[in-house]
Design a protein that fits this description.
98 residues; alpha+beta
């Protein structure tokens, strides 16, 4: 999955979701995607700054999570998804991943 596709998919999904109340940075195949949900909506950028929650995974795993082929809890427990920071924000990801 290319950087452009990942970014555009995240942007479309974040725009339709309620503000998450914090900042989440995804690092997908070393590509940063920042979602800032501290305002009236979720703003997606390619910023590599600090975030309340950082989620690291691969585009392959992200695709399996989005399609439902991989359970999020099993992905975390199996080390396929790494989460640092605010776990409460991580729990709000279902609304962003669709």
């Amino acid at each position: 999955m290319s950087k452009e596709i990942i970014f555009e998919q995240m942007k479309a999904q974040a725009a339709s979701a309620s503000p998450i109340g914090g900042t989440i940075k995804f690092v997908i195949d070393d590509i940063p995607v920042m979602i800032d949900g501290t305002g009236d909506g979720n703003v997606v950028s390619d910023s590599d700054g600090d975030a309340d929650c950082v989620i690291t995974t691969s585009s392959e795993v992200l695709g399996k999570l989005k399609s439902g082929d991989l359970n999020p809890m099993m992905a975390v427990m199996g080390g396929k998804v790494k989460i640092k920071g605010d776990m409460g924000l991580a729990m709000k990801l279902q609304s962003l991943l669709g």
